[in-house]
Model the fold of this input.
Amino acid sequence: MGMTNVKGVAAGLFHSIFIKNDGTVWTCGRNNLGPLGNGNNSDQLIPVQIIGLSDIIQAAGGGEHSLFLKADGTVFSCGLNSSGQLGDGNNSNKNIPVKLNGLTNIVQVAAGAEFSLFLENDGSVWACGHNGYGQFGNATNTSSKIPIKINNLSDISFISAGEWHSIFVKKDGTVFTSGRNQYGQLGDGTTNNNLMATQISSLSNVIQAEAGGIHSVFVKSDGTVWSCGLNSGGNNDGQLGDGTTIDRLIPVQVISSWTNGNIICAEATREHSLYLKNDGQVWASGRNNYGQLGYGSFTNLNSSISVHSNKICSVLLSSLNQNQLKNQIISYFPNPTSSYINLHSTKELTDASINIYNTFGKLIKQINSIQGYEITIFSDDLFAGIYFLQLIEDHKIISTHKIIISNP
Done:
C-alpha cells in the first residue's frame, strides 16, 4: 500500500481512512455512495487523497459515511445521507466532503450506522442522523438532518457510536449509554432500548469506551477492560472475552491473559474486540473466521478469552492495585486543553515520570524526575487529538488518564 507518516486511521463498514502527519486524508474501499470523498463513486483498491481537506486531526467511518475533524474544531462529512447523518440539512449523498455549519470547537467525532456524534471542547455533545432507537440519548426517537445539542449530557470527555447505540464517558469516569439494546450492549441490566442516556451504575473510573456493532467495551484507569452485549451471535463468537459465549446485560471483566501491564485503549468491531497494552502489545477476543484475531490461526477458531495478537514487546511495568492507591488521589485539569494540563497528587511524588501515548500506543512524550505534589504539562508540542497520560513511580503505574488536546 505504501502509506507512510500516518498519524491516525479510521474504518467504516467497507472503507478505510488514513490521516497523515501533514493533515492530509487518504481513503480506499467501497465508494458507490461517496464515503471516500474523492469526487466520484468508484471503488478504490489503493488509498487516494481527498483533495481540499487539510489540517485533519481525527476521522470516523460509519456504515457508508465519513466524518473529518479539522484542527480548528470544524467538521466535514461525505457519503450516504439517507437519514441526515452528514448533518448538512438534507438527505442528498455527497462524494465530496461538505462543512457542517454551526459546529465549532469540536474535539472528537464518532460515526454509527446512519448517525453521527460530535463532542465539543466544553463537554457538550451534538448529534445528527437516524435516532429511531434513541441513540442520541435525548429522550426522543426523532431524527435530525442537522446537528442538535443533547441538552441532558454535560462534562463528557469521550464519545463512541456503535451500529445503533451510543456511549458517553464523563470526565469523572462514569459512563452513560443510549439506543438499541437487544443483546444488552447498553450495560444497564436489560434488553430494552433506551431513549435517554443512562448511567451504567456498575462502572466507574472509565477512561475510554468503544461501541461495537452489538457489544461494548470499557477501559478503566486501572488498566482493566470490561464488556457487555452480544457474546454468541450463533457462532460462539466470544467477543466479550470473559471465557464464555453468554450474552451479558451488565459489564463483565475481560480475562486478562496479558497478566501484568495496563490496557490503554480498546476497540469493538461487530464480532471481535482488540485491546492495546501500554507496552505496545495487542490482544484480541471473539470471532476468527478470517484470522481477524491475528494470533497465527487461519482456521475458524474463535477465542472467548484474550489471545496475543502481536508479540512485539515485553511487559516492562506493573500496576498498583486499588488498596495501594486508596490514600492517593490524582487529578488532571483542564481537560480538554489547548495549552497545558495541571496534575495534582494528594501524596508527594518522588522521582516520578510521565509517559504520553497516542491512540496507537506509541510513546509520544516523556517527562522525568517529577517531584512534589503538582506538575504542569505543556501540550504545545502535541498535535490536537486524543492521548493517554501515564504517571509512573518506582516502576509502577500510579495513574492512567485520557487527555484531549484541542486546537488553540
Q: What stands out?
A: The helical segments are 322-325. The first strand starts at residue 6 and ends at 11.
